[in-house]
Structure formats: C-alpha cells, structure tokens
Design goal:
The chain is of the alpha/beta class. It has a single domain, classed as Metallo-beta-lactamase, Chain A (4-Layer Sandwich), CATH 3.60.15.10. Helix content is 39%, strand content 19%. The protein contains eleven helices and 14 strands. The protein has a seven-stranded mixed sheet with strand order 3-4-5-6-7-8-9. Helix 3 links the parallel strand 6 and strand 7. Helix 8 packs antiparallel against helix 9 and helix 9 packs across helix 11. It starts with a helix and ends with a helix. The protein binds zinc ion. Zinc ion (ZN) binds next to loops.
C-alpha cells in the first residue's frame, strides 16, 4: 500500500520543519516548500505515435531528486496503458501516473519490470495500488529474497528519506517470465525477451512491434560508459547481439535520452563490453596482477566518454573477476 496524499503532506511538513530547524540552505537561499515537493520536473516525452517515456536525471539518487535517476516507458495500447519500469520512489510513480492521466483516460493495466534495481522498482507499489498487473523476469524472485535487496532498502530508507520510508516495500511480480514470449497486453502484442543474466540476472527487454520501439532496460547506454557492476559480461554481449538483430526504429534505455539510432547505441555498449573482455581475458586467465593489466591497456578509444573516469577502472576490474569465475 502506498501512503495517502495526506501522508505525504504530513511528511513534507515534517521535512520542511526539519529543514527550517537545520537552517538548510541551498545557493544561499532556503529551499521553498514548492521546490522541494515538485522537483525534479517529471514530464512525458513522445518517442513514437503511442509511446512516451519519462527521463530521469543524470545523477545519483538523493532526497532532493526523489531518486528520479531512471527512465519509465509508457505505451498507450488500444485498451489500456502499459508502463515499463516504475521509477525510484512511490511518490515519483504517483507523479508519473498523474502525468499519464493528462494524455489518456485509459486505465494503467500493466507494469513491466526490466530488472530489480532499486531505482527501477521502488515505485511499483503505486502501480499496484491503481490495479496494474506487475510482470517481471523470474530471476527477480532470487533478488527479492536476497540480503542485498533487504539491506539496499534499509539503506535507502535512511539515504532517500522521506521518499523511501517504512511504507516502501519491494513488490513481487504477479506474472513471472521464464522464457522469451509474446504476450497480448491491453490489445497489443508485447515481445518479452529474457536477456538476463546480463546487467543483472533478471534482465527483461520489451519490444513493442506496433510501435517499433524497444525498451532495453540497462543493457544499453547511449554515448556514455555504462556501469557494469557485477554483471555477466559475456551474457550481456550475447543479449545485445539479439537486440541489435531486432533493428527497432527507437530504443528507450533505462537511463538517459532515448535513441533514434538504436543500432549505433546498442553497438556502442556491446563494443565497449567486448573491449573490456578482450583486454582483460588473458591477464585474468593467467592470474596476472590487475593493476598491471589495467595500466597496460590503451584506453584512448573510450577515455573521452562521459563517466570514463568514474566507471572504467571498476568496470575493468569487475570483468577481470567475472572472467576468472567463468
Ligand atoms: Zn540497473
């Protein structure tokens, strides 16, 4: 259950009081009540005739941005609305639901989860509250019962308060996807592709043939270095090859701008992952020293891309480790 509007109003008042008490200043001025409750801006961008998305900020999740750091897709199917990913807090999800109501009277019937990372699923309960059916890849069950999920939520309740709190709960799917399949949702076919393990074990990509739009989740990053994390780099590369074959007109990633040149952007992520594997494979297999191996690589093809400094070394290290465990 999500908290009511009054619940939020009370929380916001508490927060405003806390901010006042602490003399919380930003750029020399007090954050106004309205700025706190309304920021960041959440709007729907049209990417094809009946498909929209809300684009999260290029940032880490903070109380000020309400954890609005990931994207959500919105497909207006003939009989209802299908949402892809639920955003990073129940409050954001409620704002997305309000935005959807400005473009259609149709009910929100389904929400499809591309993977169980906090910034994509903490809003799920708001969609459940409006009667939407939650669809996710079956490996998500493993995450939901893991210590990682429990600890992540505990930390988020502290770091992202009041937007993530004791009322925020992880939501299991109503329908688990165990194989690739085409399902008819609100009158339209949706191709659900089991593309994990890749970015996570439970990745699910969604292709909407009627709109020729692909929702790639966190498998595709446009023009920036991805965060590889403890991903399955070999699985990720082979899944990207499957997505490249679809050749959609438009692709919506889990973060950042949508792509009108998916072939190029899917290839960029695939080639980067392949570059990491090609350069880390021998040293990892030979049990060489990672630091030496990292220094020996000419990283110039990727050094000028955003997030290279923040992510590349950790990505290389994660791929180094994952190759050793293959
Ligand atoms: Zn993710």
């Amino acid at each position: 259950m999500s908290i009511s509007f009054q619940g939020y109003a009370m929380k916001i008042q508490q927060m405003a009081r806390t901010c006042l008490a602490l003399g919380f200043l930003l750029a020399g001025s007090m954050i106004s009540f309205a700025a706190w409750t309304q920021s960041p801006q959440l709007k729907l961008t049209q990417v094809s005739l009946n498909t929209y998305y809300a684009e999260g900020l290029f940032a880490l999740g903070t109380p000020l941005n309400q954890n609005f750091i990931s994207n959500a897709g919105v497909v207006l199917a003939p009989e209802g609305v299908v949402v892809i990913d639920a955003l990073g807090s129940p409050a954001l999800a409620q704002r997305l639901i309000a935005e959807i109501k400005t473009i259609t009277n149709k009910p929100i019937t389904h929400v499809i989860v591309t993977h169980y990372h906090a910034d994509h699923v903490y809003g799920l309960q708001a969609f459940r509250d409006v009667g939407a059916t939650i669809i996710a890849q079956e490996q998500g069950k493993v995450y939901l019962t893991s210590d990682t999920a429990r600890l992540r939520l505990e930390v988020s309740r502290e770091e992202l308060a009041p937007w993530i709190d004791e009322q925020t709960r992880l939501q299991a799917a109503d329908q688990w996807v165990s194989t690739d399949q085409t399902v008819v949702l609100s009158g339209w076919p949706f191709e659900l592709m089991k593309v994990g393990p890749a970015h996570t074990p439970d990745d699910l990509a969604v292709y909407v043939p009627k709109e020729d739009v692909l929702f790639a989740g966190d498998l595709m990053f446009q023009g920036r270095i991805p965060y590889v994390g403890n991903a399955d780099s070999a699985g990720w590369i082979s899944s990207l090859n499957r997505l490249i074959k679809i050749a959609p007109s438009v692709a919506v990633p889990g973060h950042g701008p949508f792509s009108t040149d998916p072939a190029k952007d899917l290839l960029f992520t695939r080639d980067y992952l392949q570059f990491l594997r090609d350069n880390m494979y021998e040293p990892a297999r030979n049990l060489d020293d990672f630091d030496e191996a990292y220094k020996a690589v000419d990283w110039s093809p990727y050094a000028s891309y955003p997030l290279f400094r923040a992510a590349n070394r950790m990505n290389a290290y994660n791929v180094f480790l994952s190759i050793q465990s293959e």
